[in-house]
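Researcher: Sequence recovery benchmark, item below. Answer with residues only.
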Protein backbone atom coordinates (compact mmCIF):
# COMPACT_ATOMS: atom_id res chain seq x y z
CA UNK A 1 0.00 0.00 0.00
CA UNK A 2 2.00 2.91 -1.35
CA UNK A 3 -0.70 5.41 -2.30
CA UNK A 4 -3.38 7.32 -0.37
CA UNK A 5 -6.14 5.62 -2.37
CA UNK A 6 -4.78 2.16 -1.55
CA UNK A 7 -4.78 3.06 2.17
CA UNK A 8 -8.32 4.45 1.88
CA UNK A 9 -9.62 1.35 0.11
CA UNK A 10 -7.87 -1.10 2.45
CA UNK A 11 -8.89 0.43 5.78
CA UNK A 12 -12.05 2.44 5.03
CA UNK A 13 -13.41 0.43 2.06
CA UNK A 14 -14.03 3.60 0.01
CA UNK A 15 -13.19 3.80 -3.71
CA UNK A 16 -12.84 7.57 -3.90
CA UNK A 17 -12.02 10.51 -1.67
CA UNK A 18 -14.49 13.23 -0.73
CA UNK A 19 -13.89 16.70 -2.23
CA UNK A 20 -10.54 18.24 -1.21
CA UNK A 21 -9.42 15.24 0.89
CA UNK A 22 -6.86 14.06 -1.66
CA UNK A 23 -5.40 17.56 -2.17
CA UNK A 24 -5.02 18.00 1.61
CA UNK A 25 -3.36 14.58 1.94
CA UNK A 26 -0.96 15.37 -0.93
CA UNK A 27 0.09 18.66 0.71
CA UNK A 28 0.76 16.86 4.01
CA UNK A 29 2.79 14.14 2.29
CA UNK A 30 4.88 16.86 0.63
CA UNK A 31 5.76 18.16 4.11
CA UNK A 32 3.68 21.34 3.94
CA UNK A 33 1.97 22.98 6.91
CA UNK A 34 -1.72 22.68 6.05
CA UNK A 35 -5.02 24.24 7.08
CA UNK A 36 -8.24 22.35 6.29
CA UNK A 37 -11.64 23.97 6.69
CA UNK A 38 -14.21 21.32 5.84
CA UNK A 39 -17.91 21.45 6.78
CA UNK A 40 -19.51 18.87 9.07
CA UNK A 41 -19.40 15.49 7.34
CA UNK A 42 -16.49 16.53 5.10
CA UNK A 43 -14.22 13.76 6.42
CA UNK A 44 -11.58 15.71 8.33
CA UNK A 45 -10.08 12.75 10.23
CA UNK A 46 -9.18 10.88 7.04
CA UNK A 47 -7.15 13.91 5.93
CA UNK A 48 -4.52 13.27 8.62
CA UNK A 49 -5.03 9.54 9.23
CA UNK A 50 -4.23 8.46 5.65
CA UNK A 51 -0.90 10.34 5.31
CA UNK A 52 0.13 9.28 8.82
CA UNK A 53 -0.34 5.62 7.82
CA UNK A 54 1.80 6.14 4.71
CA UNK A 55 4.74 7.58 6.67
CA UNK A 56 7.02 5.96 9.22
CA UNK A 57 6.46 7.00 12.82
CA UNK A 58 3.56 8.19 14.92
CA UNK A 59 1.01 10.97 14.39
CA UNK A 60 0.24 13.24 17.38
CA UNK A 61 -3.41 14.31 17.40
CA UNK A 62 -4.41 17.15 19.73
CA UNK A 63 -8.14 17.25 20.53
CA UNK A 64 -10.19 18.93 23.29
CA UNK A 65 -12.99 16.36 23.22
CA UNK A 66 -12.51 13.21 25.29
CA UNK A 67 -15.46 11.45 23.66
CA UNK A 68 -14.16 12.28 20.17
CA UNK A 69 -10.67 11.00 21.05
CA UNK A 70 -12.03 7.74 22.42
CA UNK A 71 -14.37 7.31 19.45
CA UNK A 72 -11.59 7.79 16.88
CA UNK A 73 -9.20 5.49 18.77
CA UNK A 74 -11.87 2.80 18.93
CA UNK A 75 -12.57 3.14 15.18
CA UNK A 76 -8.86 2.88 14.37
CA UNK A 77 -8.42 -0.19 16.56
CA UNK A 78 -11.36 -1.87 14.83
CA UNK A 79 -9.35 -1.45 11.63
CA UNK A 80 -6.30 -3.05 13.33
CA UNK A 81 -4.51 0.29 13.46
CA UNK A 82 -2.60 0.84 16.71
CA UNK A 83 -3.80 3.98 18.49
CA UNK A 84 -3.73 5.34 22.07
CA UNK A 85 -5.63 8.17 23.80
CA UNK A 86 -4.35 10.06 26.85
CA UNK A 87 -7.39 11.81 28.35
CA UNK A 88 -7.27 13.51 31.75
CA UNK A 89 -7.44 11.39 34.90
CA UNK A 90 -4.90 8.67 34.01
CA UNK A 91 -2.63 7.64 36.89
CA UNK A 92 1.06 8.46 36.55
CA UNK A 93 2.14 4.80 36.35
CA UNK A 94 -0.38 4.09 33.57
CA UNK A 95 0.63 7.24 31.72
CA UNK A 96 4.28 6.17 31.94
CA UNK A 97 3.47 2.78 30.37
CA UNK A 98 1.29 4.23 27.60
CA UNK A 99 3.97 6.74 26.59
CA UNK A 100 6.57 3.94 26.46
CA UNK A 101 4.22 2.03 24.16
CA UNK A 102 4.15 5.02 21.82
CA UNK A 103 7.96 5.01 21.62
CA UNK A 104 8.60 1.28 21.35
CA UNK A 105 5.27 -0.31 20.43
CA UNK A 106 4.93 0.65 16.76
CA UNK A 107 1.82 2.76 17.44
CA UNK A 108 0.57 5.02 14.63
CA UNK A 109 -1.59 7.53 16.54
CA UNK A 110 -1.36 9.24 19.91
CA UNK A 111 -4.42 11.29 20.85
CA UNK A 112 -3.99 13.74 23.72
CA UNK A 113 -5.64 16.78 25.21
CA UNK A 114 -3.78 20.12 25.07
CA UNK A 115 -3.52 20.05 28.88
CA UNK A 116 -1.32 16.94 28.61
CA UNK A 117 1.33 18.97 26.81
CA UNK A 118 2.04 20.86 30.04
CA UNK A 119 3.33 17.73 31.80
CA UNK A 120 7.08 17.21 31.93
CA UNK A 121 6.80 13.44 31.45
CA UNK A 122 4.77 13.93 28.26
CA UNK A 123 7.24 16.50 26.87
CA UNK A 124 10.23 14.27 27.62
CA UNK A 125 8.68 11.23 25.91
CA UNK A 126 7.56 13.28 22.91
CA UNK A 127 11.23 14.16 22.33
CA UNK A 128 11.98 10.43 21.96
CA UNK A 129 9.11 9.66 19.57
CA UNK A 130 9.50 9.38 15.81
CA UNK A 131 6.71 11.84 15.02
CA UNK A 132 5.60 12.02 11.40
CA UNK A 133 2.74 14.53 11.66
CA UNK A 134 1.06 16.86 14.17
CA UNK A 135 -2.72 17.14 13.70
CA UNK A 136 -4.67 19.83 15.58
CA UNK A 137 -8.36 18.93 15.58
CA UNK A 138 -11.04 21.54 16.41
CA UNK A 139 -8.36 24.14 15.65
CA UNK A 140 -10.79 27.04 16.17
CA UNK A 141 -10.32 26.45 19.92
CA UNK A 142 -6.99 28.29 19.74
CA UNK A 143 -8.63 31.53 18.63
CA UNK A 144 -9.91 34.09 21.12
CA UNK A 145 -12.81 34.62 18.69
CA UNK A 146 -13.48 30.93 18.09
CA UNK A 147 -16.72 29.23 19.04
CA UNK A 148 -15.09 27.24 21.85
CA UNK A 149 -11.89 29.07 22.79
CA UNK A 150 -9.57 27.09 25.06
CA UNK A 151 -6.45 28.85 26.37
CA UNK A 152 -4.85 25.43 26.86
CA UNK A 153 -4.54 25.23 23.05
CA UNK A 154 -1.73 27.77 23.39
CA UNK A 155 0.33 24.84 24.76
CA UNK A 156 0.52 23.35 21.27
CA UNK A 157 3.54 25.52 20.52
CA UNK A 158 5.46 23.10 22.78
CA UNK A 159 5.21 20.53 19.98
CA UNK A 160 6.66 23.08 17.58
CA UNK A 161 9.65 23.63 19.87
CA UNK A 162 10.26 19.91 20.41
CA UNK A 163 9.88 18.96 16.72
CA UNK A 164 10.23 22.17 14.66
CA UNK A 165 10.56 20.40 11.29
CA UNK A 166 7.49 18.16 11.58
CA UNK A 167 4.56 19.28 9.38
CA UNK A 168 1.37 20.37 11.11
CA UNK A 169 -2.21 20.18 9.90
CA UNK A 170 -4.98 22.26 11.51
CA UNK A 171 -8.58 21.13 11.01
CA UNK A 172 -11.95 22.65 11.83
CA UNK A 173 -15.54 22.53 10.59
CA UNK A 174 -16.46 26.17 11.17
CA UNK A 175 -14.35 29.31 11.28
CA UNK A 176 -14.78 32.92 10.26
CA UNK A 177 -12.00 34.75 8.39
CA UNK A 178 -10.95 36.35 11.69
CA UNK A 179 -10.64 32.90 13.32
CA UNK A 180 -8.71 31.43 10.37
CA UNK A 181 -6.11 34.21 10.59
CA UNK A 182 -5.87 33.64 14.35
CA UNK A 183 -5.27 29.90 13.88
CA UNK A 184 -2.46 30.43 11.35
CA UNK A 185 -0.68 32.93 13.64
CA UNK A 186 -1.17 31.05 16.94
CA UNK A 187 -0.03 27.68 15.52
CA UNK A 188 2.86 29.37 13.69
CA UNK A 189 1.95 27.62 10.46
CA UNK A 190 4.74 28.27 7.93
CA UNK A 191 3.41 29.35 4.53
CA UNK A 192 0.43 27.02 5.01
CA UNK A 193 -1.52 25.47 2.17
CA UNK A 194 -5.07 26.55 3.00
CA UNK A 195 -7.92 24.37 1.78
CA UNK A 196 -11.33 25.85 2.26
CA UNK A 197 -14.34 23.99 0.96
CA UNK A 198 -17.40 26.07 0.24
CA UNK A 199 -20.10 25.70 2.86
CA UNK A 200 -22.81 26.10 0.22
CA UNK A 201 -25.36 23.26 0.25
CA UNK A 202 -27.58 23.48 -2.81
CA UNK A 203 -29.90 20.78 -1.46
CA UNK A 204 -30.39 22.24 2.04
CA UNK A 205 -33.03 24.89 2.67
CA UNK A 206 -32.73 26.98 5.83
CA UNK A 207 -36.22 27.90 7.03
CA UNK A 208 -36.80 30.31 9.93
CA UNK A 209 -40.38 30.15 11.20
CA UNK A 210 -41.83 32.88 13.43
CA UNK A 211 -44.62 31.12 15.32
CA UNK A 212 -46.74 31.51 18.42
CA UNK A 213 -47.19 27.76 18.98
CA UNK A 214 -44.02 25.76 18.41
CA UNK A 215 -45.64 22.39 19.16
CA UNK A 216 -48.26 22.94 16.46
CA UNK A 217 -45.61 23.97 13.94
CA UNK A 218 -43.42 20.99 14.86
CA UNK A 219 -46.29 18.56 14.19
CA UNK A 220 -47.10 20.36 10.96
CA UNK A 221 -43.50 20.13 9.69
CA UNK A 222 -43.17 16.46 10.58
CA UNK A 223 -46.52 15.73 8.95
CA UNK A 224 -45.63 17.64 5.78
CA UNK A 225 -42.08 16.34 5.31
CA UNK A 226 -41.68 12.58 5.85
CA UNK A 227 -38.39 10.91 6.71
CA UNK A 228 -35.82 10.80 9.48
CA UNK A 229 -35.55 13.90 11.64
CA UNK A 230 -33.50 15.47 14.45
CA UNK A 231 -35.17 17.97 16.78
CA UNK A 232 -32.67 20.05 18.77
CA UNK A 233 -33.67 21.48 22.16
CA UNK A 234 -31.76 23.39 24.83
CA UNK A 235 -31.94 21.13 27.89
CA UNK A 236 -32.59 17.61 29.14
CA UNK A 237 -36.06 18.33 30.48
CA UNK A 238 -37.23 19.69 27.11
CA UNK A 239 -35.81 16.64 25.33
CA UNK A 240 -37.88 14.27 27.49
CA UNK A 241 -41.07 16.36 27.36
CA UNK A 242 -40.97 16.92 23.61
CA UNK A 243 -40.25 13.24 22.94
CA UNK A 244 -43.30 12.31 25.04
CA UNK A 245 -45.39 14.91 23.20
CA UNK A 246 -44.43 13.51 19.78
CA UNK A 247 -45.13 9.92 20.81
CA UNK A 248 -48.53 10.98 22.19
CA UNK A 249 -49.29 12.50 18.78
CA UNK A 250 -48.45 9.33 16.86
CA UNK A 251 -44.84 10.02 15.90
CA UNK A 252 -42.13 7.53 16.89
CA UNK A 253 -39.54 9.49 18.85
CA UNK A 254 -36.92 9.06 21.53
CA UNK A 255 -34.59 11.48 23.33
CA UNK A 256 -30.83 11.81 23.74
CA UNK A 257 -28.90 13.98 26.19
CA UNK A 258 -25.76 13.88 28.33
CA UNK A 259 -27.62 12.28 31.24
CA UNK A 260 -28.61 9.12 29.35
CA UNK A 261 -26.28 6.24 30.25
CA UNK A 262 -23.90 4.97 27.56
CA UNK A 263 -25.70 1.67 26.92
CA UNK A 264 -29.06 3.39 26.48
CA UNK A 265 -27.50 6.04 24.22
CA UNK A 266 -26.12 3.33 21.94
CA UNK A 267 -29.47 1.55 21.86
CA UNK A 268 -31.41 4.69 20.97
CA UNK A 269 -28.85 5.82 18.40
CA UNK A 270 -28.97 2.40 16.73
CA UNK A 271 -32.79 2.41 16.65
CA UNK A 272 -32.72 5.83 15.00
CA UNK A 273 -30.02 4.79 12.50
CA UNK A 274 -32.05 1.70 11.53
CA UNK A 275 -35.18 3.89 11.32
CA UNK A 276 -37.01 1.86 13.91
CA UNK A 277 -37.52 5.30 15.47
CA UNK A 278 -38.08 8.26 13.16
CA UNK A 279 -37.30 11.28 15.34
CA UNK A 280 -34.39 11.96 17.69
CA UNK A 281 -35.11 14.78 20.15
CA UNK A 282 -31.73 15.85 21.45
CA UNK A 283 -29.56 18.42 23.15
CA UNK A 284 -26.25 19.41 21.53
CA UNK A 285 -24.78 16.25 23.14
CA UNK A 286 -26.10 14.52 19.99
CA UNK A 287 -23.41 15.55 17.59
CA UNK A 288 -20.21 13.56 17.42
CA UNK A 289 -20.06 10.69 14.97
CA UNK A 290 -23.50 11.23 13.41
CA UNK A 291 -23.10 10.00 9.85
CA UNK A 292 -26.65 9.25 8.73
CA UNK A 293 -26.94 10.53 5.15
CA UNK A 294 -30.73 10.55 4.75
CA UNK A 295 -31.82 12.92 7.54
CA UNK A 296 -34.58 14.88 5.81
CA UNK A 297 -35.28 17.53 8.46
CA UNK A 298 -33.30 19.10 11.29
CA UNK A 299 -35.55 21.23 13.48
CA UNK A 300 -34.21 23.67 16.06
CA UNK A 301 -37.04 23.94 18.57
CA UNK A 302 -35.00 26.53 20.44
CA UNK A 303 -32.45 29.00 19.10
CA UNK A 304 -28.82 27.89 19.71
CA UNK A 305 -26.24 30.25 21.17
CA UNK A 306 -24.29 30.88 17.95
CA UNK A 307 -24.40 30.65 14.17
CA UNK A 308 -21.51 28.16 14.37
CA UNK A 309 -23.59 25.76 16.48
CA UNK A 310 -26.67 26.22 14.30
CA UNK A 311 -24.75 25.71 11.06
CA UNK A 312 -23.04 22.56 12.30
CA UNK A 313 -26.25 21.00 13.63
CA UNK A 314 -28.40 22.03 10.65
CA UNK A 315 -25.72 20.56 8.37
CA UNK A 316 -26.60 17.04 9.55
CA UNK A 317 -29.55 17.11 7.17
CA UNK A 318 -29.32 15.93 3.58
CA UNK A 319 -25.81 14.54 3.43
CA UNK A 320 -27.00 12.20 0.67
CA UNK A 321 -27.42 15.22 -1.60
CA UNK A 322 -31.21 15.01 -1.73
CA UNK A 323 -33.42 17.98 -0.87
CA UNK A 324 -33.63 18.48 2.90
CA UNK A 325 -34.73 21.24 5.23
CA UNK A 326 -33.35 22.84 8.38
CA UNK A 327 -36.05 24.62 10.38
CA UNK A 328 -35.47 27.11 13.17
CA UNK A 329 -38.57 27.93 15.23
CA UNK A 330 -38.75 31.33 16.89
CA UNK A 331 -41.41 33.03 18.99
CA UNK A 332 -41.64 36.42 20.68
CA UNK A 333 -40.01 35.30 23.93
CA UNK A 334 -36.90 33.75 22.35
CA UNK A 335 -34.81 36.94 22.26
CA UNK A 336 -35.50 37.55 25.94
CA UNK A 337 -34.75 33.88 26.76
CA UNK A 338 -31.50 33.93 24.79
CA UNK A 339 -30.37 37.07 26.62
CA UNK A 340 -31.19 35.53 30.01
CA UNK A 341 -29.67 32.16 29.15
CA UNK A 342 -26.42 33.25 27.53
CA UNK A 343 -25.65 36.90 28.30
CA UNK A 344 -27.15 37.68 31.70
CA UNK A 345 -25.42 34.66 33.26
CA UNK A 346 -21.90 35.33 31.97
CA UNK A 347 -19.66 35.23 35.08
CA UNK A 348 -17.33 37.97 36.23
CA UNK A 349 -13.94 37.27 37.83
CA UNK A 350 -15.35 37.38 41.38
CA UNK A 351 -17.85 34.64 40.48
CA UNK A 352 -15.04 32.50 39.04
CA UNK A 353 -12.93 32.87 42.19
CA UNK A 354 -15.90 32.08 44.44
CA UNK A 355 -16.98 28.92 42.58
CA UNK A 356 -13.40 27.64 42.32
CA UNK A 357 -12.82 28.13 46.06
CA UNK A 358 -16.14 26.45 46.93
CA UNK A 359 -15.35 23.58 44.56
CA UNK A 360 -12.01 22.95 46.28
CA UNK A 361 -13.65 23.09 49.71
CA UNK A 362 -16.47 20.79 48.56
CA UNK A 363 -13.96 18.08 47.72
CA UNK A 364 -11.64 18.98 50.63
CA UNK A 365 -8.73 19.79 48.35
CA UNK A 366 -5.93 21.34 50.39
CA UNK A 367 -3.84 24.27 49.17
CA UNK A 368 -1.11 23.03 46.81
CA UNK A 369 -2.84 19.64 46.40
CA UNK A 370 -5.46 18.02 44.16
CA UNK A 371 -3.67 17.68 40.80
CA UNK A 372 -5.16 14.83 38.69
CA UNK A 373 -7.65 13.80 41.41
CA UNK A 374 -11.06 12.60 40.15
CA UNK A 375 -14.37 13.26 41.89
CA UNK A 376 -17.98 12.24 41.20
CA UNK A 377 -20.00 15.44 41.12
CA UNK A 378 -23.68 16.23 41.68
CA UNK A 379 -24.03 19.68 40.18
CA UNK A 380 -27.40 20.63 41.69
CA UNK A 381 -26.37 19.43 45.17
CA UNK A 382 -23.21 21.53 44.93
CA UNK A 383 -25.20 24.64 43.94
CA UNK A 384 -27.73 24.09 46.74
CA UNK A 385 -24.99 23.56 49.32
CA UNK A 386 -23.46 26.98 48.64
CA UNK A 387 -26.64 28.74 47.38
CA UNK A 388 -25.07 29.42 43.98
CA UNK A 389 -26.87 30.51 40.81
CA UNK A 390 -26.95 27.36 38.66
CA UNK A 391 -26.47 29.00 35.25
CA UNK A 392 -23.63 31.27 36.40
CA UNK A 393 -21.97 28.33 38.18
CA UNK A 394 -22.31 26.13 35.10
CA UNK A 395 -20.65 28.80 32.95
CA UNK A 396 -17.83 29.14 35.51
CA UNK A 397 -17.19 25.39 35.36
CA UNK A 398 -17.10 25.51 31.54
CA UNK A 399 -14.65 28.42 31.70
CA UNK A 400 -12.37 26.59 34.18
CA UNK A 401 -12.54 23.56 31.89
CA UNK A 402 -11.56 25.57 28.82
CA UNK A 403 -8.67 27.17 30.70
CA UNK A 404 -7.27 23.80 31.80
CA UNK A 405 -7.86 24.31 35.53
CA UNK A 406 -10.35 21.43 35.78
CA UNK A 407 -11.93 18.92 33.47
CA UNK A 408 -15.72 19.14 33.79
CA UNK A 409 -17.23 15.96 32.34
CA UNK A 410 -21.01 15.91 32.12
CA UNK A 411 -22.20 12.33 32.43
CA UNK A 412 -24.64 10.50 34.63
CA UNK A 413 -23.45 7.53 36.65
CA UNK A 414 -24.90 5.41 39.43
CA UNK A 415 -22.98 3.29 41.89
CA UNK A 416 -24.70 1.06 44.43
CA UNK A 417 -23.10 -1.39 46.84
CA UNK A 418 -24.60 -3.97 49.18
CA UNK A 419 -23.41 -6.15 52.06
CA UNK A 420 -25.72 -8.49 54.02
CA UNK A 421 -24.88 -8.16 57.72
CA UNK A 422 -26.95 -11.05 59.11
CA UNK A 423 -27.04 -14.81 58.56
CA UNK A 424 -28.97 -16.50 55.77
CA UNK A 425 -31.46 -18.12 58.15
CA UNK A 426 -32.15 -14.85 59.98
CA UNK A 427 -32.72 -13.07 56.67
CA UNK A 428 -35.09 -15.79 55.40
CA UNK A 429 -37.06 -15.67 58.67
CA UNK A 430 -37.40 -11.91 58.28
CA UNK A 431 -38.63 -12.35 54.69
CA UNK A 432 -41.27 -14.88 55.84
CA UNK A 433 -42.71 -12.11 58.02
CA UNK A 434 -42.30 -9.43 55.31
CA UNK A 435 -43.44 -11.12 52.12
CA UNK A 436 -43.43 -7.87 50.12
CA UNK A 437 -39.60 -7.82 50.27
CA UNK A 438 -39.06 -11.44 49.12
CA UNK A 439 -38.98 -11.02 45.33
CA UNK A 440 -36.34 -8.30 45.27
CA UNK A 441 -34.15 -9.77 48.02
CA UNK A 442 -34.13 -13.26 46.51
CA UNK A 443 -33.25 -11.81 43.09
CA UNK A 444 -30.21 -10.15 44.68
CA UNK A 445 -29.19 -13.38 46.45
CA UNK A 446 -29.38 -15.36 43.20
CA UNK A 447 -27.51 -12.73 41.18
CA UNK A 448 -24.59 -11.90 43.48
CA UNK A 449 -22.46 -14.52 45.20
CA UNK A 450 -20.39 -13.47 48.21
CA UNK A 451 -22.87 -10.80 49.21
CA UNK A 452 -22.81 -12.20 52.80
CA UNK A 453 -19.00 -11.98 52.94
CA UNK A 454 -18.17 -8.48 51.68
CA UNK A 455 -19.53 -5.28 50.17
CA UNK A 456 -20.30 -5.85 46.48
CA UNK A 457 -21.25 -3.41 43.70
CA UNK A 458 -24.76 -4.18 42.48
CA UNK A 459 -26.57 -3.22 39.28
CA UNK A 460 -30.05 -2.08 40.29
CA UNK A 461 -31.17 -1.83 36.66
CA UNK A 462 -30.40 -5.54 36.25
CA UNK A 463 -32.44 -6.40 39.36
CA UNK A 464 -35.28 -4.22 38.06
CA UNK A 465 -35.37 -6.13 34.78
CA UNK A 466 -35.26 -9.50 36.56
CA UNK A 467 -38.08 -8.67 38.97
CA UNK A 468 -40.19 -6.44 36.75
CA UNK A 469 -40.22 -3.80 39.49
CA UNK A 470 -39.19 -0.15 39.02
CA UNK A 471 -35.74 0.85 40.24
CA UNK A 472 -37.08 3.35 42.81
CA UNK A 473 -39.10 0.52 44.42
CA UNK A 474 -35.94 -1.60 44.72
CA UNK A 475 -34.10 1.30 46.38
CA UNK A 476 -37.01 1.76 48.80
CA UNK A 477 -36.96 -1.96 49.79
CA UNK A 478 -33.18 -1.94 50.30
CA UNK A 479 -33.42 1.17 52.48
CA UNK A 480 -36.06 -0.61 54.63
CA UNK A 481 -33.72 -3.60 55.05
CA UNK A 482 -30.96 -1.18 55.95
CA UNK A 483 -33.18 0.44 58.61
CA UNK A 484 -33.77 -3.06 60.03
CA UNK A 485 -29.95 -3.48 60.36
CA UNK A 486 -30.00 -6.47 58.00
CA UNK A 487 -27.85 -4.98 55.25
CA UNK A 488 -25.37 -2.21 54.58
CA UNK A 489 -26.60 -0.37 51.46
CA UNK A 490 -25.00 2.58 49.69
CA UNK A 491 -26.63 4.26 46.72
CA UNK A 492 -24.76 7.13 45.12
CA UNK A 493 -25.53 9.09 41.97
CA UNK A 494 -23.57 11.73 40.13
CA UNK A 495 -24.40 13.68 37.01
CA UNK A 496 -20.85 14.80 36.29
CA UNK A 497 -17.18 14.27 37.07
CA UNK A 498 -14.60 16.83 38.13
CA UNK A 499 -10.89 16.27 37.53
CA UNK A 500 -8.53 18.85 39.04
CA UNK A 501 -5.78 19.39 36.44
CA UNK A 502 -3.55 21.73 38.48
CA UNK A 503 -2.81 22.06 42.22
CA UNK A 504 -5.08 24.34 44.23
CA UNK A 505 -3.68 27.87 44.48
CA UNK A 506 -6.92 29.88 44.83
CA UNK A 507 -6.42 33.47 43.61
CA UNK A 508 -3.08 32.65 41.94
CA UNK A 509 -4.80 29.96 39.86
CA UNK A 510 -7.57 32.30 38.71
CA UNK A 511 -5.43 35.42 38.24
CA UNK A 512 -3.40 33.56 35.60
CA UNK A 513 -6.49 33.12 33.44
CA UNK A 514 -8.66 36.14 34.26
CA UNK A 515 -7.60 38.06 31.13
CA UNK A 516 -9.32 35.38 29.04
CA UNK A 517 -12.68 35.99 30.72
CA UNK A 518 -13.37 39.45 29.27
CA UNK A 519 -12.50 38.32 25.76
CA UNK A 520 -14.62 35.19 26.12
CA UNK A 521 -17.64 37.17 27.35
CA UNK A 522 -17.26 39.72 24.54
CA UNK A 523 -17.12 36.93 21.95
CA UNK A 524 -20.20 35.21 23.39
CA UNK A 525 -22.28 38.41 23.34
CA UNK A 526 -21.23 39.00 19.73
CA UNK A 527 -22.30 35.49 18.76
CA UNK A 528 -25.70 35.75 20.45
CA UNK A 529 -26.37 39.02 18.63
CA UNK A 530 -25.32 37.40 15.31
CA UNK A 531 -27.76 34.45 15.64
CA UNK A 532 -30.59 36.80 16.66
CA UNK A 533 -29.86 39.00 13.63
CA UNK A 534 -29.99 35.87 11.46
CA UNK A 535 -33.43 34.90 12.78
CA UNK A 536 -34.82 38.42 12.39
CA UNK A 537 -33.67 38.98 8.79
CA UNK A 538 -36.56 38.52 6.37
CA UNK A 539 -35.06 40.11 3.27
CA UNK A 540 -31.77 38.34 2.44
CA UNK A 541 -31.30 34.71 1.42
CA UNK A 542 -30.58 32.63 4.55
CA UNK A 543 -27.91 30.53 2.87
CA UNK A 544 -26.20 33.64 1.55
CA UNK A 545 -26.22 35.23 5.00
CA UNK A 546 -24.63 32.13 6.59
CA UNK A 547 -21.93 31.87 3.93
CA UNK A 548 -21.00 35.54 4.26
CA UNK A 549 -20.76 35.12 8.05
CA UNK A 550 -18.05 32.51 7.40
CA UNK A 551 -16.25 34.80 4.97
CA UNK A 552 -17.34 33.42 1.58
CA UNK A 553 -17.30 36.16 -1.04
CA UNK A 554 -19.06 34.55 -4.01
CA UNK A 555 -22.53 33.75 -2.78
CA UNK A 556 -25.81 33.16 -4.55
CA UNK A 557 -29.45 33.01 -3.55
CA UNK A 558 -30.30 29.39 -2.75
CA UNK A 559 -33.92 29.56 -3.99
CA UNK A 560 -35.10 27.16 -1.24
CA UNK A 561 -34.72 29.01 2.09
CA UNK A 562 -37.58 30.74 3.90
CA UNK A 563 -36.71 34.14 2.39
CA UNK A 564 -36.28 32.87 -1.19
CA UNK A 565 -39.48 30.82 -1.15
CA UNK A 566 -41.45 33.75 0.28
CA UNK A 567 -40.20 35.97 -2.56
CA UNK A 568 -41.29 33.32 -5.06
CA UNK A 569 -44.73 33.10 -3.49
CA UNK A 570 -45.10 36.90 -3.49
CA UNK A 571 -44.14 37.08 -7.17
CA UNK A 572 -46.31 34.13 -8.19
CA UNK A 573 -49.55 34.52 -10.10
CA UNK A 574 -51.80 32.94 -7.44
CA UNK A 575 -55.21 34.58 -7.57
CA UNK A 576 -56.12 36.08 -4.17
CA UNK A 577 -59.77 36.01 -5.23
CA UNK A 578 -59.56 32.24 -5.64
CA UNK A 579 -58.16 31.88 -2.10
CA UNK A 580 -61.03 34.00 -0.78
CA UNK A 581 -63.60 31.85 -2.63
CA UNK A 582 -62.16 28.63 -1.22
CA UNK A 583 -62.19 30.07 2.32
CA UNK A 584 -65.86 31.06 1.93
CA UNK A 585 -66.73 27.57 0.62
CA UNK A 586 -65.09 25.92 3.64
CA UNK A 587 -66.71 28.29 6.16
CA UNK A 588 -70.12 27.75 4.57
CA UNK A 589 -69.90 24.13 5.75
CA UNK A 590 -68.31 24.70 9.17
CA UNK A 591 -66.65 27.35 11.34
CA UNK A 592 -62.89 26.74 11.30
CA UNK A 593 -59.74 28.02 13.01
CA UNK A 594 -56.84 29.44 11.03
CA UNK A 595 -54.98 26.17 11.64
CA UNK A 596 -57.86 24.14 10.20
CA UNK A 597 -58.04 26.39 7.15
CA UNK A 598 -54.27 26.21 6.55
CA UNK A 599 -54.44 22.42 6.81
CA UNK A 600 -57.23 22.14 4.23
CA UNK A 601 -56.01 24.77 1.75
CA UNK A 602 -53.02 24.20 -0.52
CA UNK A 603 -51.92 27.82 -0.87
CA UNK A 604 -48.77 29.30 0.75
CA UNK A 605 -49.32 29.96 4.45
CA UNK A 606 -48.30 33.62 4.34
CA UNK A 607 -50.70 34.40 1.48
CA UNK A 608 -53.58 32.54 3.14
CA UNK A 609 -53.12 34.43 6.41
CA UNK A 610 -52.95 37.71 4.51
CA UNK A 611 -56.31 36.95 2.79
CA UNK A 612 -57.85 35.99 6.16
CA UNK A 613 -56.74 39.31 7.68
CA UNK A 614 -58.17 41.29 4.76
CA UNK A 615 -61.47 39.37 4.83
CA UNK A 616 -61.74 40.03 8.56
CA UNK A 617 -60.99 43.75 8.10
CA UNK A 618 -63.68 44.00 5.39
CA UNK A 619 -66.14 42.11 7.65
CA UNK A 620 -66.60 39.24 5.20
CA UNK A 621 -65.66 36.91 8.07
CA UNK A 622 -65.24 37.33 11.82
CA UNK A 623 -63.64 35.49 14.74
CA UNK A 624 -66.23 34.05 17.14
CA UNK A 625 -65.98 33.28 20.88
CA UNK A 626 -64.46 29.84 20.09
CA UNK A 627 -61.62 31.60 18.27
CA UNK A 628 -62.86 30.17 14.96
CA UNK A 629 -63.56 32.04 11.74
CA UNK A 630 -67.17 32.26 10.60
CA UNK A 631 -69.01 34.07 7.81
CA UNK A 632 -70.65 37.37 8.70
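Model:
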Amino acid sequence: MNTPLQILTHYWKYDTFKPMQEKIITAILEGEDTFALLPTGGGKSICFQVPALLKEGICIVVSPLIALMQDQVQNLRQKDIKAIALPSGIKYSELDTLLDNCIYGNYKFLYLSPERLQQDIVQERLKKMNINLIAVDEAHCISQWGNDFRPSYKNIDILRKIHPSIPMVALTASATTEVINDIVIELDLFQPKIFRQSFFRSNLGYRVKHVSDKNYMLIKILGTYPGTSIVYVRNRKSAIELSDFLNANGYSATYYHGGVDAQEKTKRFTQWLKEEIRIMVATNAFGMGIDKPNVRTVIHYTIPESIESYFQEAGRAGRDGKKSLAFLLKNESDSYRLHNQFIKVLPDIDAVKLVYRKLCNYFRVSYGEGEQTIHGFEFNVFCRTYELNTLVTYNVLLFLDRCGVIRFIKRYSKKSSLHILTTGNHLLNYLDDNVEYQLITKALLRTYGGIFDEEIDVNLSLIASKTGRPENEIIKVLNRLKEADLIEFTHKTSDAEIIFLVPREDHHTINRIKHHLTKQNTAKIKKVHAILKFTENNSRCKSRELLEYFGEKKTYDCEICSVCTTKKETNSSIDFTKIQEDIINLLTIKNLSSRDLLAQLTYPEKMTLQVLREMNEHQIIKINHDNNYQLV
